[in-house]
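S.,

As promised, the MU-OXO-diiron run. Input:
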Amino acid sequence: MLSKPIQDALNKQVQMEAESSQAYLAMASWSEIQPGLQGVTDFFYQQSDEERSHMLKLIRFINERGGFALTPALEQPIVTFKSIKNVFDEFLKHELKVSSSINELVHLSLTEKDYATHNFLQWYVNEQMEEERVARTLTDKLQLVGDDKGGLYLFDRDIMNFRGAEGKKSQ
Ligand code: FEO
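Predicted complex:
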């Protein structure tokens, strides 16, 4: 059975994963209407799907442990961006925020002595390490590319391969 503080904190995380999914959906949609960003577009559509799966995993866990997972209300995310670099900076910023929220949850699970939740959260700890690494690497690559259109072309062409080759889990 989940304690009230744990249930509330898990539901807050449900909201955050849903917001992530929406934020990346907006990034995919914006990228899709820019010329020549098919790779980036596909990347964010996929990223959005993954965040939804992170949300679902939490919902199922809360309900299976005797709690009640609340379907969150969502605000409209940022829908327009100054540049592709701006998109990836926001992506990294968002993932760092998610990581810090997961860390707080892990801490709470220990203070509440809820070891089942602590165990469940380890998947998210690993996932966040991977997501941060992907976001940071791609942001660094774009920093190198700067305003070089040829570089951006290659970045867009390689982004899905990068994900696959680097062993990004499709969760
Ligand atoms: Fe599920 Fe990328 O946070």
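The CA atoms of residues 20 and 165 lie 24 Å apart. The longest helix spans residues 115-145.

- D.
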